[in-house]
Amino acid sequence: MAAAEDTAAAAEGAPPLHLFNSKTKKKELFVPRVNGKVGMYVCGVTPYDSSHVGHARAYVAFDVLYRYLNFLGYEVNYVRNFTDVDDKIIKRAEQNGEDTSSLCTRFINEFHTHMTELQCLPPTVEPRVTEHIKDIVELITEIIKNDKGYVVDGNVYFSVSSFPEYLSLSGRKQDDNLAGSRVAVDPKKRNDKDFALWKAAKEGEPSWESPWGDGRPGWHIECSAMSARYLGHVFDIHGGGKDLIFPHHENELAQSRAAYPESEVKCWMHNGFINNCGEKMSKSANNFVTIRSIMTQYHPMALRFFLVRAHYKSDMNYSDEALEIASDRVYYIYKTLHDCDETVSLYREENISVPVPAEEQKLVDGKLILFLIVVKQKLEQQKKKQQQKKQQQQQIPQNKPEDHIQALAALSAEIKSKLSILGLMPPSPLAEELEHLKEKALTRAGLTEESLREQIEQRVAARNSKQFDVSDHIRKDLASKGIALMDEPTGTVWRPCERE
Fold it and tell me: Where is the tRNA synthetases class I catalytic domain (predicted)?
């Protein structure tokens, strides 16, 4: 990217940001349509079942982008929808013997709970398809008026052959354009590649009035209508999983431009899959792991950390081992920050105001991994000095560690700031989060605090009687369950760890 473009972007008040555009297949300098404001639409869930970790991947990825845009100072209008009328919803409601509205409300509420647990900020607006039928009908009317759609027996179809730009997003060839997910083969269509904009009503299904008869929207038209309703016909970012590139987003692009030729998305963004045993995790493949089931075993921030470790565009492999590693990393970070805060608090009353040494300030301004390493080193130094201070009791130390304390405080503040941008800084006190992480570790190990304490006492007794093979066996057995024992002067303590 040319330096002049970077300079221009920075001059607008924010550092340059480059995003990968799925349509152009390259990274591009992000320049919002309106200076200081960003319009972003992300396709939401179809609430007929519990959300799985693949859903979490998408919404955590775009939450990080949302947070970062806010951090850069942009005013972001973030729209994320709910597809609350769909073939799958109708089928599941019929199986359950309940109406579609109650089914959707139940799973929408569960989805909101999971997003809160994962610290995903709420979007600006969360429209539902059933609340925007009027907008959808108006959009379909424009498509028909422009000779890009046709009516057959109360159904309305989009004419793919009438739109030369079709497949410009996915880059597919017409020969590859076969019926796919939710694209049914229908003899009423002029071309088997055409897709439904409006479906004629069927007995027992929810329906609404329209110029073509009672019916309900097709899958793709909803997002074209709702994005235009809240962001206008031209907006900055449209996101979703890469499985939506075709047919969903391809059809969205076609519908929007067929109705209003000026319609444009400046940047299309798509996150990678979560794979389970080498296959994309999905409900249709019945190989999904629900967010709810993960939360019973792991701290929510362990799942979020696992999801943000990889680049949002890349595919990820799900495994319990990967989640345990993520949980261990989160515990390490929170424990380091907690110990850091406790050490700094010991000197708070001394009102230290000396500047951070230049060399340590460089580390504060550097990369996050350096923060963690240096914080640990400084923390160990401060603990030793604090122990010396206690031993001297009434004596005033000759060399107070003011410079290191200031550096430690600065490092801690910088880490917390970066974690907040990533959505990894918990709202509760760190001590509470550490206890929560330990509780989840005990659950995974199949232990209680009492049963673990008994094993620790048995190991201490074995060591005291020089039965080291017994004590080693207890330690190794606990380590295999993700429980690490540490012998300290005050006694044996434990912490979660990766299984050995």
Answer: 31-326
282 φ/ψ angles, rounded to the nearest 5 degrees: -160, 160
Supply the pTM of this predicted model: 0.88
Q: Which residue has the tokens 């206890």?
A: 435
Report the alpha-carbon angle 153-155-161, nearest 5. Answer: 110
Structure tokens at 172: 């597919």
The pLDDT, as a whole number, for residue 10 is: 37
Closest CA to 312 of 257, 359, 274: 274
Domain-located, residue 436: no
d(CA 193, CA 162): 12
Q: DSSP readout, 138-168?
A: HHHHHHHHTTSEEEETTEEEE-GGG-TTTTT
* CA gyration radius, the chain: 28
> Cα angle vertex 498, ends 325, 436, to 5°?
75
Q: How many CA atoms lie within 13 A of 140 on its CB side?
A: 30
Instruction: Name the nearest CA neighbour of 138 among 125, 149, 126.
Output: 149
User: For 203-212, what is each residue's pLDDT tens digit?
Assistant: 999 999 999 9
| Per-residue pLDDT tens digits for 130-149 | 999 999 999 999 999 999 99
Helices (H) and strands (E) in the chain, counts: 16, 15
Do residue 56 and residue 150 come from a single domain?
yes
Residue 273: exposed, middle, or buried by beta-carbon count in 10 A (0-12, 13-18, 19+)?
A: buried
1 CB-contact burial (10 Å; exposed 0-12 / middle 13-18 / buried 19+): exposed
Last residue of a domain, one of 298, 318, 338: 318
Separation CA 195–CA 189 (nearest Å): 8
Domain boundary among 318, 339, 371: 318
Percent of the chain exceeding pLDDT 90 equals 76
**Alpha carbons within 13 A on the beta-carbon side of 198:** 31
Contact call for residues 414 and 362 (beta carbons, < 8 A): no
Q: Which residue has the tokens 């969205």?
A: 252
DSSP assigned state of 498? -
Give the pair of three-digit tokens for residue 210: 């329209």
